[in-house]
Amino acid sequence: MQVTRRMGLAIFIGMLPALIIYIGIAMIPILMSFYYSFFDWNGLSHMSFVGLDNYISVLKDGIFWKGVQNNLFMMVSGIVGQLPVGLFFALLLNRSMRGLKAYRSVLFLPVIISAVIVSLIWNMVYGTESGLMNNMLGLFGLESLKQNWLGSPRWGMLSVSVTYLWQNYGFYMVIFLAGLQNISEEVREAAVMDGATGWRRFWFITLPMLKETIWVTLIFSISNSFRVFDLIYVMTAGGPAHNTEVMTIYMYTQAFNNSDFGLGSAVSILILLFSLLAIYAAKLVTRRNG
């Protein structure tokens, strides 16, 4: 019992610095935002208590719900795009080959590039006049398919989501790769000896043993989709006509452009609630489907 208590104390002391940092940079700002959300405040003048008025104003604003819709689109596109692509490259790299480290570095490179740089690169790809996309279409005689990709109500969010996929798939690739390397080689060898094909080994051995890893990537994908900001802000600033606006851009606009920090704080709390609700819904779905 004494040893167990000492071990528990040692673990607590070891975790204490990280816990203090987490409380300082995460919990305290959340609690402060929750407090400010009940006030009318421009950041300088006296705060005036307004109760739930900020939340009511936000929930009545159609632009906010457009942001919710776009965030849900980013969430779904991230789950069906980033996770399969990350798993695909993880499977390719989970083997012995010449230049393996170089391949891993190249595929992970978009993750470590600044979101601003990524946005500027893809703005050049989507450019109306000299963009790579339209030039390639013209090269193949598909002039009629040329678009203002980021300015189109039809293609704007899809274009942004492709950029978002390219920037982040490497993050999930690394997580899946770590999960794959924890699968016992003996299990794979036994499956090969039993005559299981590559597809059957993947479907009945690899995928079930990656269940916990998939759940981790799912949580990351959902939470990241609700906090995406800089990528879209640099590419489109939420335009045109709020077509690509997400909740974080709406929050930024209210707090810093309109100097309404109470309303902006209310939006930040709603973003947190939507994120938690989406994660809980994903948990129910995955539990139901085993």
Features:
single chain; 290 residues; mainly alpha; MetI-like fold; two-stranded antiparallel ribbon; 13 helices; 74% helix
Task: Describe the fold and architecture.
The chain has 290 residues and is an all-alpha fold. The chain has a domain of 200 residues: MetI-like fold (Orthogonal Bundle). It is 74% helix and 1% strand. It contains 13 helices and two strands; from the N terminus they run αββαααααααααααα. It has a two-stranded antiparallel ribbon with strand order 1-2. A hairpin with a 7-residue loop joins strand 1 and strand 2. Helix 2 crosses helix 13 and helix 3 packs antiparallel against helix 10. The chain is globular, with a radius of gyration of 23 Å. The two termini are 38 Å apart. The mean pLDDT is 89. It is found in: Cell membrane. InterPro entries: ABC_transporter_permease, MetI-like, MetI-like_sf. This is ABC transporter permease subunit.
In short:
The chain contains 13 helices and two strands, in the order αββαααααααααααα. It is mainly α. The longest helix is centred in the N-terminal third of the chain and has 35 residues, at 2-36.
